[in-house]
Amino acid sequence: MRAAIAILCMALIAAGCATNREPAPQTYDFGPVGQSETGANSVQVVEMRAPEWLDGSQMLYRLAYRDPRALTPYSGSRWAGTPASMLTLRLRQQLGNVPGAKCIFSSSLAEFSQTYDASDSSRAVLHVHAVLAATGAQGQRLQKEFRLEAKAPTPDAAGGAAAFSAVASDLAKAIGQWMAGTGLCTQT
Q1: Model confidence, pTM
Q2: 37 by DSSP, 3-state: which?
Q3: How far apart are CA 84 and CA 54, in angstroms?
Q4: How many Å separate Cα 51 from the centre of its chain?
């Protein structure tokens, strides 16, 4: 009888331990790429740089209505990679990435956070500094700042991921238009 009670207690303890596990965090990326615009420009996209505080997979948010200086990570959600690596991939998917191209595109990430203006309303905020350099004899170098935002469909990590997916594609489109307007990278 004692053995049966001991086995029953051990089974209950083991079952309790199994049910007290924290769920695995939800992992997000930008989803499938939309329409590509790689045909117009001959460009090589180098890996985006980011400050140390953005060099991780945490999904960060700001409560602007409480303290806009405080960045807080979502506890149960994360990015599939660093914001800079995911943005680099999206830029390469939408703009192309040709080794030995007519232009080299480099960039650095200054802001990448979900900002809550109220408890039920948030937006993705992205700020990128871009440099476009011609590889030919001209050696021309142009710089531009890109500041983009997109309203999140829901005030949570999933809504932030959706908004950042849209803003990443908008960034690639804006950079592609800028490149085309410069004429530096146009294929002949």
Answers
A1: 0.84
A2: coil
A3: 8
A4: 14
In 3D space, the residue among 27, 33, 43 whose CA is nearest the CA of residue 81 turns out to be 27
According to the model, what pLDDT value does residue 40 have? 62
CA dist., res. 185 & res. 45, Å (int): 12
The sign of the torsion formed by the CA atoms of 48, 51, 56, 62 equals negative
186: which DSSP letter?
B
Q: How far apart (Å, rounded) are the C-alpha atoms in residues 23 and 69? A: 30
CA distance 176 to 111: 20
User: Tokens 């005030």 appear where?
Assistant: 155
For the chain, the helix, strand and coil percentages under 3-state DSSP, each to the nearest 5: 30, 35, 30
Strands (E), the chain: 26-28, 43-45, 58-63, 67-79, 103-118, 121-134, 141-151
Q: Cα–Cα distance between 14 and 8 in angstroms, integer? A: 10
For the cut 60, the answer to whether the pLDDT of residue 14 exceeds it is: no
How large a percentage of the chain has pLDDT more than 90?
70
Query: For 136-147, how does the pLDDT look when each residue is reduced to its tens digit (9 = 90+)?
Result: 766 789 999 999
Angstrom distance (rounded) from CA 182 to CA 107: 17
Contact between 139 and 133 under an 8 Å Cβ cutoff? The reply is yes
pLDDT digits (tens, 9 = 90+) for 145-154: 999 999 999 9
On the CB side of 90, how many CA atoms lie within 13 Å of its CA? 25
Length, in residues, of the chain = 188
